[in-house]
Each structure stands twice: as structure tokens, then as C-alpha cells.
Amino acid sequence: MRSPCPICAALDLVGDKWSLLIVRDMIWLGKTRYNQFTDSPEHIPTNILADRLKRMERFGLIQSKPYQDNPPRHEYHLTDKGLELRPVLIEMIHWANKHIPGTITPPVPID
Amino acid sequence: MRSPCPICAALDLVGDKWSLLIVRDMIWLGKTRYNQFTDSPEHIPTNILADRLKRMERFGLIQSKPYQDNPPRHEYHLTDKGLELRPVLIEMIHWANKHIPGTITPPVPID
């Protein structure tokens, strides 16, 4: 850890442009599989997706489990630790809806 | 913008390991000046600090104003847009205090 500051510690885990989008896809869109994540409109590069899934599993935010043997494929689910990032994302939604023109208000309930 | 998703739009502005630490220093520690930010325990590199302050001003999160002419020096203050990131940070604090061992609970009221 860079410091014992909780904000800093959180950013060390999810302070990048992609990890929280994967959490978003899992929470609100029910995505679990590799090609579902690459289908999102932000078009996450596959090498970044692979890296972030590995990091997020190492940090205890997600768990992987195999769903196919040949070729081997995994699906990914949020742990409680990952799921509980939801309030952070909800505050980001409120903030962006208020301050960044052109952002859409989610059609699903977020509170 | 990568997409009209508000979470994505927020991350395009503050989805990095440093910008929100600068916001933290401004909100809770009242920091406004360059050397005050470099004094924080995370030791932000000066080139990154300069880059982030420029980006944050371009994004409308902070405003700079000169406080000294020779040599020229600026101080930085949050705009309403920057200040209203507070609820995002507070949710990060709650999340990290619960899920990341070794993080300290801030001694000042955060709610």
C-alpha cells in the first residue's frame, strides 16, 4: 500500500479506467464471460481485460470458475468485496449525470 | 467519451491513481499549493502532479489562481464539480475500511 489512507488503498485496487467498468458489467448487466465483457461499448482491449480479471481475482474482487474444458473457459463472479463497490459506482453515476453533459441516466433503478 | 455511460465518463476524468488523492487533499486537508501536495505520504511525483493539475483544470474540477509573481506560483481550488466528488470518496472510505485491512478510519467526520 502507498499509505494507510482508505481512499488511496481503494485506488490502488480499482483506480484505473477499466476495473470498475467490469464491476459495472457484472452488477447491472449480469455479465460473467470474457466475450461478454469485450462486447461492451467501450471495447476493452483483450489484453487489458485478461490483465484486469487476473488483478481483480488476486485482489479478491471476483472469483473465477471453469464452465468448459476444451478449450478451457472460465466465468467470473463478484465476491461480496466486489459487489460492495456498488455505492461507489452509484455516486459516480449521480456525479456524472449532474456534471458531464451527454451521459445517460441508467434505465434501471440504481438506489 | 468512450461511451455515454456515466460511470465510464466519470472514470475518463478521475479513473487514475492520483487525481482523487489530490481531491482528497483539497477537501479534507485544505491543501492548495504544489509543495503541499508533494508533501502527502503517497509522495506524488512532481511530473505527475503537474500533469494531473493541468488535466483537472481542463476538466473543470479545479481552478488555479496566481499567488506570487516572481517566480510565478499558482494555488488550486476545487470547483463545485470537483467538490461534489466528495460522496464518491466517502463511499471509497467506507468500502476500504470494511474490506482492506490496515486502512485507517479518518479522524475527521466524513458523513
Task: Characterize this entry briefly.
The structure is a homodimer of 111-residue chains. Chain A has 111 residues and is mainly alpha-helical. The first copy, chain A, contains six helices and two strands.
Tell me about this structure.
- Two copies of one chain form a homodimer.
- The first copy, chain A, has a single domain (6-99), classed as Arc Repressor Mutant, subunit A, CATH 1.10.10.
- Helices cover 50% and strands 12% of the residues of chain A.
- Chain A is built from six helices and two strands, in the order H-H-H-H-E-E-H-H.
- The first copy, chain A, has a two-stranded antiparallel ribbon with strand order 1-2.
- In chain A, strand 1 and strand 2 form a beta hairpin.
- The A-B interface holds A 1-13, 15-17, 20-21, 24, 40-42, 60, 81, 84-85, 87-100, 102-106 and B 1-13, 15-17, 20-21, 24, 40-42, 60, 81, 84-85, 87-100, 102-106.
List the main descriptive attributes of the protein structure presented here:
50% helix; two-stranded antiparallel ribbon; Arc Repressor Mutant, subunit A; 111 residues; globular; homodimer; 12% strand; mainly alpha
Return residue spans of chain A where pLDDT drops below 50 for at least 5 consecutive residues.
none
| Proper CATH architecture of chain A | Orthogonal Bundle
Return Rg of chain A in Å.
15 Å
Beta percentage of chain A is: 5-15%
CATH topology of chain A: Arc Repressor Mutant, subunit A
Largest chain-chain contact?
A: A-B, 45 and 45 residues
Intertermini distance of chain A: 31 Å
